[in-house]
Write a structure and sequence with these properties.
The protein has 129 residues and is mainly α. It is built from three helices and no strands. It has a domain at 73-129. The chain has helices at residues 3-72, 79-93, 104-110.
Length: 129
């Protein structure tokens, strides 16, 4: 093999090596991006799971409060009014996200004090409209 052939072979394999390095770097970048996406999605799932657990706890609290109201009330009372009063009392004790108000339409029907303007439906289709 002559010196010119050896030089051509070295240059050929140097180019092949440079191509392989660029491909490796591109794959590493793709892997890093995918890994970051997995981390972001895992964090989102964790936040969503926490929110679901919080809502489950609020629901359990509501069911317990409603059961206590039913136990303490006369069994001949109207169950809708009992439930509405229990929910109104719960929102006063443990407000939901937002302003935690009960719509004035429900407040009027159940004898709860009325808010002017209605804070629950922002003047929607309740008695304030």
């Amino acid at each position: 093999m002559t010196a010119a052939e050896e030089l051509a072979a070295v240059l050929h394999w140097r180019d092949k090596h440079a191509i392989a390095v660029r491909e490796r770097d591109g794959l590493q970048l793709s892997l890093n991006t995918a890994d970051q996406t997995i981390d972001d999605l895992s964090a989102a799932v964790s936040r969503r799971t926490k929110r679901v657990r919080d809502l489950e706890a609020q629901l359990a609290y509501a069911v317990d409060a409603l059961n206590e109201v039913v136990k303490a009330s006369d069994m001949y009372e109207k169950p809708f009014e009992i439930a509405t009063l229990a929910i109104g009392e719960m929102s006063a004790i443990k407000p939901a996200e937002g302003n935690g108000s009960t719509c004035n339409q429900i407040r009027e029907e159940t004898g709860l004090p009325i808010n002017r303007p209605c804070k629950a439906c922002n003047g929607g289709s309740c008695i304030d409209k």
